[in-house]
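Z., the sequence and structure:
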Amino acid sequence: MSGLSSRVDALSFEFVTMQRDRAQACLDRCVSLGFRQFDLSVGETLHLGEWRSAEELQNELRILGADANSGDIYAR
């Protein structure tokens, strides 16, 4: 999970609700690399524009229903 060793301008990664802890760990890694704004896209929808803090996104990820199954997290 710590493969990225230096900051890039932006990135995205996929998550599955069955392994939210991995998504949380990836968010923590992004923060440690200096990313400060995040967005979330659930399922196959592309939903960009509501940038929020890592803490806000982590809270949203925690309460996301299991029926969401998967999505993408964007960082910048």
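The CA atoms of residues 9 and 76 lie 6 Å apart. The longest strand covers residues 11-16.

Let me know what you think.
H.
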